[in-house]
Amino acid sequence: MTPEQRIEALGLTLPHAAGAVANYVPWAISGNVVMTSGNLPWRDGKLAYTGRIGREITGDEGYLSCQLSCLNAVSQIRQAVGELSKVKRIIRLEGTMGVDETYKDHPKCLNGASDLINEAFQHKGQHTRMIYTNPVMPLNCTSLVVLYAEI
After folding, report:
1. I need a surface site. Which of 54, 77, 126, 149 has the fewest CB within 10 A?
2. Is the residue at 98 inside a domain?
3. Residue 5, SS3 per DSSP
4. Beta-strand (E) ranges in 22-118?
5. How does pLDDT run across 19-33, given as a tens digit for each residue?
């Protein structure tokens, strides 16, 4: 199965790649690495998750927010390279979340992105990752995902 087929088997749909919301490009290729800009939890052109995890939304919803942000990042990789089978490896996942100051389960939320990558890309999806939090997130979103992939 291709990564696209594995994503569909999860019951998910790979969206059209979102454009930039400011003065930057959605993705860039340098040598054999494609890097995405930060991807928000867009669904049909609107933010599906807003507010802070642990306050306005639950940790389970935070997981889904990170999954959706990652799905948008994967879509940008597909736009950059044409088809996801050209990805040799997902190198790095960086997730930024807007969380309530008392919320401590950041890793479980970012697993929404990691689980998607690992399932879609199988052994090529084993990646490093970093979690960040911001006191104020862009457009009041709950999550932002950046991916680096070897092509």
Report:
1. 126
2. yes
3. helix
4. 27-30, 33-36, 42-43, 46-47, 89-97
5. 888 999 999 999 999
Structure tokens at 118: 């690992």
CATH number at residue 71: 3.30.1330.40
Please count the structural domains in the chain: 1
pTM of the full predicted structure? Answer: 0.97
CA distances in angstroms from 79 to 27, 29, 98, 141, listed in the order given? 9, 11, 27, 23
* Per-residue pLDDT tens digits for 66-124: 999 999 999 999 999 999 999 999 999 999 999 999 999 999 999 999 999 999 999 99
Enclosing domain of residue 117 = 3-17+32-150
Residue 78's Cα: distance from chain center in Å? 13
> In this structure, is residue 26 part of a structural domain?
no
Is residue 23 domain-resident?
A: no
